[in-house]
Amino acid sequence: MTEAFPTDQTRAFGKLILFGEHFVVYKVPALVGAVSAYTDCKLEYLEEPGLEVVDNRPAVPLYKVKKKDEGDEAIKLTLTHLGIDPKVRGIRLTFGGDLCCASGIGASAAQVVSLARAVNIAESQSLSEDEINAAGYEGEKGYHGTPSGIDNTAATFGGLLRFQRTDGAPIFEKKSFPAPIRIVYASTGITASTIEVVGDVRSKKEADEAWFANNMEKYTSLVEEAEQVVEEGDLIKLGKLMDQNHALLQDLTVSCKELDDLVDAARSAGALGAKMSGTGRGGLMIALTPTEEVQDSVAAALEKLAPQVWKTTFA
Fold first, then answer.
1. pTM across the whole model
2. Closest Cα to residue 23, out of 198, 144, 185, 192?
3. How far apart are CA 107 and CA 105, in angstroms?
4. How far apart, in Å, are the Cα atoms of 249 and each of 20, 97, 278?
């Protein structure tokens, strides 16, 4: 049995939605930030044919139990896409890293992108980053059926990603942060159905098109300003825009008391801005913290309310 390479070459990042939940469904841009927390993958060749998977990733309770079948399918799809058959040459895959698996953080994409990197190095396939990303997209089908492509793209390239749906293929524009941005994110401990929440927003839109159009207009102006503010590195303005985006999501009724309490606590503890991130009605929230001291203060405040809290950076 031999190890093929050091795992630091296989890192793939998690992600958080910075702007655009729900509005992105209607073909306006969203901004997604890759976090510095990562998943890596160690590939070892075995003397006997077969596939062994060791999952050492940190995770919220029951995540890996609930996701095991999907994860097994995702690994299979990624290996098949890359032309790897463990029945011919046995391999052991060990997944690790410091990205804690939770709904909304892009853990599934980080897993399959790290796997694609591992195979690329072990098999000397000389894949480009776009080809790594494509392999990750194939793997994501095991988790999501028809993935948007946001998560695997963020996992592959890091940085800031502008995403927009179209009538055809979605548009991705890779950007970068001028400097790492400290953040804290926290889980409500509540898992909501994306399909149900998106469907509810659609029903509300159809019932009151003028109300939704007004919110859409506000969001479109907000995200255009946010793109410029992020590139300039103006954290004060960025925080204010995050607050405004959260207010719009509250009006869409996709926030909830647990999210609002965490957002309020983060702001009171010194965050420049805070908002829900992802589907809503549970899931994750994110807070912008300009210094290590503020980051620690916000994390401590959130730990009094949330079952899981993490400190990391957009990078």
1. 0.85
2. 198
3. 6
4. 9, 32, 11
Q: Which helix (H) or strand (E) holds 92?
A: strand 91-97
**Alpha-carbon distance 272 to 254, whole Å?**
22
Burial 69-101 (b: 16+ CB within 10 A, else e): ebbeebbebbbebbebebeeebbbbbbbbebbb
Q: What is d(CA 192, CA 285) in angstroms, rounded to the nearest whole number? A: 14
Whether the Cβ atoms of residue 63 and residue 117 lie closer than 8 Å to each other: no
Task: Tell which residue, 41, 37, 42, has the closest CA to residue 16.
Answer: 37
Beta bridge partners of 42: 94
The DSSP result for 10-63, as a single string, is G-EEEEEEEE-TTGGGGT--EEEEEEEEEEEEEEEE-SSSSEEEEE---BSTTH
For residue 100, give the nearest of 70, 42, 137, 55 by alpha carbon.
55
pLDDT in tens, the chain (315 residues): 554 456 789 999 999 999 998 898 888 999 999 999 999 999 999 999 999 999 999 998 888 888 889 999 999 999 999 999 999 999 999 999 999 998 889 899 999 999 999 999 999 999 999 999 999 999 999 887 778 788 899 999 998 899 898 888 788 898 878 888 999 999 998 877 777 888 899 999 999 999 999 999 999 999 999 999 998 999 999 999 999 999 999 999 999 999 999 999 999 999 999 999 988 898 899 999 999 999 999 999 999 999 999 999 987
> Closest Cα partner for 148 from 132, 156, 137, 159?
137
Alpha carbon of residue 294 to chain centroid: 23
262 contacts: CB under 8 Å, gap ≥ 6: 186, 188, 274, 285, 302, 305, 306
Q: What are the backbone dihedrals phi and psi of residue 127, each rounded to the nearest 5 degrees, phi first?
A: -75, 145
Size (the chain), residues = 315
